[in-house]
Amino acid sequence: MLKINNLQAAIEGKEILKGIDLEVKPGEVHAIMGPNGSGKSTLSSVIAGREDYEVTAGNIDFQGEDLLDLDADERAHKGIFLSFQYPVEIPGVTVTNFIKTAINESRKARGEEAMPANIMLKKMREKMGLLEIDSAFLSRSLNQGFSGGEKKRNEIFQMAMLEPKLAILDETDSGLDIDALRIVANGVNKLKSKDNAIIVITHYQRLLDYIVPDFVHVLHQGKIVKSGDKNLAHELESRGYDWLKEGVEA
Amino acid sequence: MEALKDKLESSFLVFENEINGAADSPMHARRREAFQRFIKMGFPTKRHEEWKYTNLKPILKHDYRVFVNDEQTVDFSAIKRYFLNDVDTYKLVFIDGYYSSWLSETTHSDFDICTFSNMLTKYKDVGEKYFNKALPEDEALASVNTAFAKEGAFIRVKRGKTVDKPVEVIFITTDHGVETMTQPRNLVVVEENAEVTILERHQSLSSQEVLTNTATEIFALKDSRVNYYKIQNDAPNASLIDSTSVRQYSKSNVTLGTYSFGGKFTRNNLNFFLEGEHTESHLDGITVIDGKQTVDHHTLVDHKVPNCYSDEMYKGIYDENSHGVFNGKVMVHPHAQKTNAFQQNNNILLTDKSSIDTKPQLEIYADDVQCSHGCTIGQLDEDALFYLKTRGIPEKEAKALLLYAFANDGLRNVKIPVLRKKLNRLIAKKLNVNLDFEL
Question: Most buried of A91, A117, A186, B349, CB within 10 angstroms?
């Protein structure tokens, strides 16, 4: 589904990603872990299509197409979704209108008709139940005045509505208390299928107790320095990152 | 400018001759005084503090015909789109300064919704009491309008009455093959505990330069409620100078919304004089312009007495080479304690060549007050744009959505749903998008 080859990216001349290789197949959950500043968020931004980053080498193949040729919105139309670490507040646009616009713009891009209002509403209700979201939530301005937990729940709600093929969850656990974490993780697990894939980006192992990864990769100084299964996450939790850093810097 | 001034001078003599019988009336004395003031002041130039940011010269250099004599008719179908349509309204329609009875729908029951000229003959007492008693004397263009005041809307809502449907006041200028100047004059008197909602627009159907120099006086008496909305979306060669003054008496509540999208040049002089305590004033504005358009908002909220509340919010989006001005003065007099006065002016410049001059002016001479003002000038938020794009919303639509959302606060006091819809559509059209949502 996703094949990243020797991806290198820089921002304002500063090299952040120094050759990433990663392959994600349908049905898989990958976790990318690493200390602050290792390039985790850069990787997610580059996959999603943020223009501030300059890709200096490598490519990203998504279902046989080079993602780097596409704008962020076109990538979304192909089924890429990024759950933001810091979702942006947009006063004046309600959650409902935002989701409606997002779904219908994607459908339009794929040559499909707009989703009928009653079906949209039904779907919203169903997904709201999944994430234990109150209906009053829908008429609030997007992320404005939302608590950290509400923002993250809203991200996963959007994911549930948009049904992406590849979802990247960037630090979805940050700012969540344990109950909110459980709800969000539970929501993600229910959205998992054999046809879609998830990349979980996280600093801590905590989230991975709930969203269990098939693969864990450790990112350090713009490179994947170690890959393993879920046990690697536990090892990182007890040993920290330093033992891996030494290996690289030596 | 001098040529136009000379022309107005001779036109005024003609005007006086035409109304020979009424030339001695107290009403006409006010016109004459106003004209004398104008002759003394002349047209304002950029040297005037209040005209620092906009140059009237290019607007006043045209050879406008001041009186249109060849009356023309207009089919309703040609102007239907300027009306609200989906809702029942009273209508006052003027073609080239003349009242059009067949396009209008008036009433004289619990409220008079008729013409200024009608007021001059039928309701002289009202005229004597209110005519030119709200507009400041030192504004040259308002004075010119006063001097030539003879037609426009007259709306008087009697004590305790609520006008059952909105009133639409529309001024149409047709093509006479020459550059044309019109000077509509409106008087609105809303008596004690009465209520009215009014919508005003000026529309040129001419391919020639048109200058509308309009003036409106609104008296909101004790406990009255007034909603007044202006849609300024005129033709590309039409300019508008609008002087509107509101006098508010105790516990009255007035909302005035100015929505500017079209026209070549638009200047709004909006004054609120708070005469009685516990009044509420809402001044809202949305400006979305492009090309070489100019929209200049000058507002004054004059807190003369204690315990009044005023809230002003103007939003502007400027594309291409357009130019905006916001000059918002809030005056709190020494004994106007417990004043609450808020002002906000937020602007987005979409290009390097667009510009905005914004000048909040708070003069506070009382100590126990709550006043605030904020003014911002910015570009679109790149983070927000990226966020929307990752959700599949293309750049153009994402920008429009953000601009919509930005401007939306300016519609907070629009109480007629069809008007809200219309304004949303006008904003969308101006932003050149077709989005399937409403805010």
Answer: B349
Decide the pairing of beta strands A2-11 and A14-24.
antiparallel
| pLDDT tens digits, A161-204 | 999 999 999 999 888 888 889 989 999 999 999 999 999 999 88
Q: Which pair of structure tokens corresponds to residue A247?
A: 């290996």
Look at residue B81 and tell me whether its pLDDT is greater than 60. yes
pLDDT above 70 covers a percentage of chain A that reads 98
pLDDT at B410 over 80: yes
Residue B124: HSE in the Cβ half-sphere, 13 Å Cα cutoff = 6
Q: Residue ranges of the domains in chain B?
A: 2-276, 380-439
pLDDT of residue B435: 61
Task: Give all strands (DSSP E) within chain A, no chain letters.
Answer: 2-11, 14-24, 29-33, 54-62, 65-66, 80-83, 90-94, 141-142, 166-170, 197-202, 215-220, 223-228
- Residue-level pLDDT at A250: 41
How high is the pLDDT of residue A78? 95
> Are the C-beta atoms of residues A19 and A6 closer than 8 Å to each other?
yes
> Is 70 exceeded by the pLDDT of residue B423?
yes
Is residue B111 classed as helix, strand or coil in its secondary structure? strand
Taking CB atoms and an 8 Å limit, are B439 and A94 in contact across chains? yes
Half-sphere exposure of B133 (CA within 13 A, CB side): 17
E-assigned strand segments in B50-194: 90-95, 98-99, 107-108, 111-115, 153-157, 167-173, 180-182, 185-190
Interface test with A, best of B286, B317, B391 (most A CBs within 10 A): B391
B316-B317-B323-B324 Cα dihedral, nearest 10 degrees? 0
pLDDT bucket at A91, cuts 50 / 70 / 90? confident
Interface test with B, best of A11, A93, A142, A163 (most B CBs within 10 A): A93
Answer yes or no: is pLDDT of B436 > 80.
Answer: no
The whole-model pTM stands at 0.86
Distance CA A159, CA B390 (A): 11
Instruction: For domain A2-249, give the fold.
Output: Rossmann fold (3.40.50)
The H-or-E segment that residue B345 falls in is strand B340-349
Contact A93 B394 (CB under 8 A): no
Residue among B383, B405, B436 whose CB faces A93 most closely: B405
DSSP secondary structure letters along B180-204: EEE--EEEEEE-TT-EEEEEEEEEE
Identify from A51, A53, A71, A73 which residue to disrupt to test chain B contact, counting B C-beta atoms within 10 A and taking the largest count.
Answer: A73
Identity of the amino acid at B431: L
Instruction: State residue B269's pLDDT score.
Output: 98
DSSP conformation letters of A105-137? HHHHHTTPPPPPHHHHHHHHHHHHHHTT--GGG
Residue B338 predicted with pLDDT over 60: yes
Q: Are B394 and A101 a contacting pair at CB < 8 A?
A: no
What is the helix, strand, coil percentage profile of chain A, to 5? 40, 30, 30
What are the residue boundaries of the structural domains of chain A, listed by start? 2-249
Looking at the complex, does the CB of residue B40 fall below 8 Å from at least one CB of chain A? no
Both tokens of residue A29?
């959950």
From the list A248, A246, A199, the residue with the least C-alpha distance to A225 is: A248
Give yes or no for a contact between B352 and B48, defined as CB atoms under 8 angstroms apart: no
